[in-house]
Design brief:
alpha+beta, 23% strand, eight-stranded mixed sheet, 3 domains, 184 residues
Length: 184
């Protein structure tokens, strides 16, 4: 939104300040404004691309949302599941070999395996849905659960600015939805 505001508002304002009919340097002034807007747009798109979530990783009884700028991609990983995709985040889990690396393992491509390889562990550690009432307004929890009636448990998700909840069906071992509720 800020990116759009800068390009849509600041550019025309600069043009109004500079544009005066008959000015000898008008074309050059407008060209400079256009170049500055293009640079600002490019920088803004770069920042948005770096902030996108690329992996949702199950680690230590909760999910971690890993953004592109946090992801460590190096070495030879045979799995194509954990590229820095623009088509949405990949679900993964920290491999058994990497669990001793601590919290940083969730950010390293070489430490990850597809979520379905460790999903049984995740679903067996899922928390009862009733716990959400301790940390959230009961009416809000009920309205969200009405939208996802098949969910019977949840797994916390740690993200940069706030924590979220991943609703799951423990009985079906299925991920249902990510919702804005406080998990703890």
């Amino acid at each position: 939104m800020l990116l759009l505001g800068v390009d849509v508002i600041v550019g025309p304002l600069l043009t109004l300040l500079v544009a005066k009919p008959g000015k000898r340097t008008l074309k050059m002034d407008l060209a400079i404004i256009g170049i500055l807007q293009a640079i600002a747009l490019g920088y803004g798109l770069y920042i948005v691309a770096q902030g996108r979530p690329v992996w949702l990783v199950y680690s230590n009884k909760h999910f971690v949302a890993v953004q592109a700028y946090e992801a460590v991609v190096r070495g030879e990983n045979t799995s194509k599941d954990f590229s820095l995709s623009f088509s949405g985040p990949s679900w993964g889990a920290v491999s058994d070999k990497a669990t001793d690396q601590g919290a940083d393992a969730a950010y390293s491509q070489n430490s990850l395996v597809p979520f379905n390889e460790r999903s049984h562990n995740a679903f067996s550690n899922a928390l009862p849905i009733e716990i959400l009432n301790r940390f959230n307004d009961k009416a809000k929890v009920e309205s969200i659960l009405l939208q996802y009636p098949e969910s019977d448990s949840y797994i916390p998700m740690a993200a940069k600015n706030k924590s979220l909840v991943v609703l799951v069906s423990k009985t079906q071992e299925k991920l249902i939805a990510i919702v804005e509720l406080a998990p703890w």
